[in-house]
Every structure is written in structure tokens, then in C-alpha cells.
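Continuing the batch. This is chain 6 of the set; chains 1 through 5 are on the previous pages. Same settings as before, nothing changed between runs. Recording input and output for traceability.
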Amino acid sequence: MLEQMYDNGYITEQEMTVAKDKPLQVNPRPFGAQLFAAESFAEEVRRELAALYGKDKLESGGLSVRTTLDPKLQIYARRELARGLITFDRKRGYRGPIRQASIGGDWGLEIAKDKVPADVAPWRLGVVLEVSETDAKVGLQPKTLAGGEVDKTREVATIPFDLLKWARKYVDGTKLGKEIKAPSDVLAPGDVVYVAPQSATQWHLMQMPDIEGALVAMDPHTGRVLALVGGFSYGSSQFNRAVQAMRQPGSSFKPIVYAAALDNGYSPSSVVLDAPVEFKMPNGKIWRPENYQKNSMGHRRCGAASSNRAT
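Output for chain 6:
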């Protein structure tokens, strides 16, 4: 292409030579499952196909696969699960920096090789350079170029004091340390931390949640899975909590079922079947939900008494 540009008079011979000598830089773009934050969804599809057809057929059989994924809903699901986990985690305080780094020399090289999950963007890794009474200055991790060398550009982010007030020290359980009076109560030079942009000039202090979760969105009329998120970050953990954790939500899920019923025309006085019922499970076994007291009751009392059959 450079030679074509030279032949057609768009660049000089010297410009062509200089451009040829420069290393080719590639900016990777998200694709496939990454594009829609659907890594957990895609991996579960792959697992099920491998179980049905075998690994060889899956990888070399030329299969064409269509799924029920709703890309827009999947992005919303990923975002809202992350938002909920971060909000809950912050209520339990700040657990401290990832590690300590030397800032006496080129701090960019010091943190350039630290691994950061790609799916936590726009989070950035950084090292605290300076702490004052009003804010903290954080040097952001520089990019690694296509040739493996570290970009020489250095960026510095500012975390204002107001955005640090949540970071009371985690003590134990739900106990938190004293209120934050100054940025130095939270950060110190050399702390390696995560930050995320609040605006063009202000950044948040972030931390990877200590709690995990999952989200599944389905069409109840067809059974189609529209969105599935297996955890906060697929890049940090490929364990799919939506299908592999086997954690039972128990009766805590019943208010969600009853709320959906009210949205669809039911009232507290509606009559609901509370008779014995059975369901065939994917593994072929039969599941027969029973009430704790093995009796029947009306809809109003079903919710109050947490009836299994009615739910």
C-alpha cells in the first residue's frame, strides 16, 4: 500500500521509507463473544454442544450454531450485575492496594507487565504517585505496543477526596474502620490500585469485588435464555456461577415470582393451584415440590407462608 501511495504521488520516497521502517501496530478489537460481553454464554453453548456431539464434531464438523442470545440485553445484564456487585462490595469497605511498587524511577515500566482482565474496562491499573490534602495522583498503566515494547506516553489521573470517602478500611464482617478524613487515610505513594473514569478529569478508586454473582434472563413463555452472566469478570474467573455453582436461591426467589405474577394480572385474592405437581428435569429425574407442612392454602397465604407448590 505504501508503494502504491508513492507511485500515485501521495507520499514522497523518504516518507515511504520511514513508514516501512516503523513496526506495524495492531489495535485489537473485541469480536464474537467479547463484543457483547457474552463469554459465559458462549462457553456454556460450547460445553453443551461438546456433550451432545463430541469435541471432534464440535471443533471440525463445520457446525452452524444459532443461539437465543439478545445482544443488547446481554450487555445490560453484564453491566447491571457488575454495578450491583460493586455497590454491595463497597459497603464492606476498602481492602487495600493490590501491591506496592517502586516509583523512584520509571513507574510506567514498574506496572506495565501487571495483568489486567480485559473485560473490566474502562478500569485502568495505576500506581499512586502523590497524595495531598485534596486528592491523589495516580500514574496509569501504559499500553504495550504490538512489538512488545512499552509505550513511552505517561498518563496521570486525579482521584478527588470526595470519591475516596467510601473507602473506609475493612475490619471484619460488616465492621468498618474510622471515617476518611483525608486521601492519605486511604492511599499512599507506591500503592498499585484500580481506577475508573468519573469524568475527563476525575477518576474513581476501584477494587475487584470480594463477592460474586450471576444473572440469567429468560423468556418464560418459550424457555429461551436471552442473557447469561457467570460472574463479575470472565477474564478473572471462567467459573460460570449461573450453571456450575449449583447454589440454590431457595425461598429468597419467591418474591420475584410473586412480583411477576402481580405484573401479569394476579391479585392477592387470586386462586392459585396448590395441588401436587411434578416436573421432569433435564437429567430425566422427576421433581415433586412439596410444602413444608404438606397441606394446601389460598394465594394470599401462599406468599406469606412461602408455599412451594403455589410458587
